[in-house]
Specification:
Chain lengths: 580, 208
Amino acid sequence: MTAPAPVETLDLAARFPGWVTPDSRPGYSGWIVEKDKLLDFARALRDDLGYDYLSSVTGVDYLPEGKMEVVYHAYKTTGGPGVNFKVQVERRDPVEVPSLVSIYPGAEFQEREAWDLLGIKFTGHPDLRRILMWEDFAGHPLRKDWREAYFEEEFKPFKSRWPEGKFQMAEDKARLGDNLSFPAGFDPRKKTDFDPEKALYEALRQYQKTESGLETEHLLVNIGPHHPSTHGVFRVAVVLDGETIVNLKPVMGYLHRNHEKIGERNTFLMNMPYTDRLDYLTSMSNNFGYALAVEKLMGITPPERAEYIRVMMAELTRIANHVWAIGFLLNDLGAYFTPMLYAQEERELILDIFEAVSGSRMMCNYFRFGGVARDLPDGVLEKVRDLAFDRLPRKVDELENLLADNEIIRARGIGQGVLTAEDAIRYSTSGPLLRASGIPYDVRRAEPYSIYDRLEFDVACRPNGDIYDRMMIRFDEIRQSLRIIQQTVKQIPAGPIMAVKPAYQVRVPPGEAYGRVEGPKGELGFYIVSTGKSSPWRYHVRAPSFINLTAFGPMCVGQKIADLVAILGSIDIVLGECDR
Amino acid sequence: MDTNELNVPGYEIPPEVQGQVAITTLDRIYNWGRRASVWPMMFGLACCAIEMICTAASRFDLARFGMEIMRPSPRQSDLMIVSGTVTKKMVPIIVRLYNQMPEPKYVLAMGACASGGGPFKEGYNVVSGIDKFIPVDVYVPGCPPTPQALLNGLMKIQEKITGEHWRNSRWYQKGRDLAEIPIPILGPDLIDPRKVEEYHRRLAESEA
Ligand code: SF4
């Protein structure tokens, strides 16, 4: 168990005079770094001050001020609060900021995303292509002056729906009668050769030369986006030498459904059900992260009973997610669907509890700012008790007995797809992936939120960083979650479940907040900027599935192609969150 | 279905072979066979796919309807369950998969997203329903539809199959347009090759 490090007062402005100034805007915190000193600053931050883990990189478009900002959140893997630093540049198209990939390789995909959606060019980035949209797409959609074809108004609720409620189909209003917008002067009748794959294949081509001098030919194989073992619509382009993987590039965005753009038009509360659909297997813990971030801005804390309910639901979610992940990993290893059926049986029982408390099996939409939507209905606590004390411990042992000593699982798991501890940190991986590589980093302990500091549990950790450890750590975590649920069932107090009166429109003071929770897949963070209006000005999701994939390529290189599927299964991604 | 259901009314079956012999029509036996062995494509897009997997698993048990064999290859499937949000980046692939499925083929739009864009309709990368590109047989509302709702939708597909007549079914027609659906193009935005003239006209109108 890592105890949180003592809070040190960090005066970066005194340490780096001339490079760094405190961010003094009301409601903001952190530091503003001079653009040309960014690399030196980041290197000192990592090497001298020990902030070795870059959690999140994102951009904000401050259109009225004529500025663009890149926001970084860095932490220490030994625990404790993080530091948040920013680079501001004048708003142009495109703007240029130095890339941090050479210092924190975990920034690779996040910087590509900021380039794609905000038009921030990271100079020195090794492979700056679009990541969620396709290469020929016109514009950078998260810029505040970019409008989608179905644009109605800047902020919801739209006047057409409320209070008058005269609804008209979006198709009838759009210029092209469809969700389309072409740049001025574009003639759709002209035959043009658009090739969305060109940039990708060019990026891979540099690896096509063989070093041995032998004139062997490398083969390019595309797996996905329609492939049963990619867990959705994920695609990998792999360069093979025989059966050995020489290089690979993940291709994403096939489920990019514009979560952040829609989220910046929605009111704060409207975003809650959308977070359900991020990682749709773990809606309760997504709710948790978002609620925490907004509550930070609003300065409220939920009442005791609500905290207990929240933790109970979040841990049930973790169990449901992990049994599912184990089942699917076994699918990928060839034990087609039988372990999955064992796993699903337990997940269904947990879903019954979710349905009882929230009304929906998957999309729970259960948390509110300052509490939860409803109290536990009669009988639910007994059901949870039965599960946590009796059934699940038994069933988890049973599942583990069936799998842990299986010869095929050991042969294909032990020593395969290894991610070393250093790499796990460098690539900003989180969750079970990080902990299976021997780093006992868990947000619930490193920077405790809610009531986790009062609960007893251990941070599961395994040393080897291979596929087998990544499977086994999920069993360990399920056991720890059961311990937590048992405590919450015993200790849950009576009382109110909301700190404030429930309201459709919440008043969120201006400022920024970064709320993070330890989701089942890893660190789930929400970066929110409020200007005091009804909708967030910036709403960014630090998605663990997305960032964990940064380490996917390095883990696979040198392995056989058949292992790729198993490695992907052991990371446990969900595309809804990965592509957002 | 037992032989009584297979029997066409109006034919006398001698009592000694009742239950063993049926007199039926080609349509009935053909549709009966097809209906009881629909092979869905193993193809998940988003959240709805999770409920589809739950439907296939033991609690809801799709096998009761002869549909438990999910095939990842479109060439072996009869039914495409579009289970989730259709994005512009994905739609060329979905259309290609649809083209690769052999006739007779059916499409079920599962959930709000596949039916009309759903909660993400306003998004810049979201297609407002798969029916803008491929013909849909059954829509199942919900976000996500519960497994029970999906089962109901699948039974509707079975009903549709039961009511078909080989003489006027699409795939036995001569001269009917069975050509492949043209694959959408990813340009500055999604271009549907069937609609370029319309785009051009509308662009000209809105500029005028
Ligand atoms: S209809 Fe709802 S559950 Fe289904 S894919 Fe769309 S958002 Fe997800």
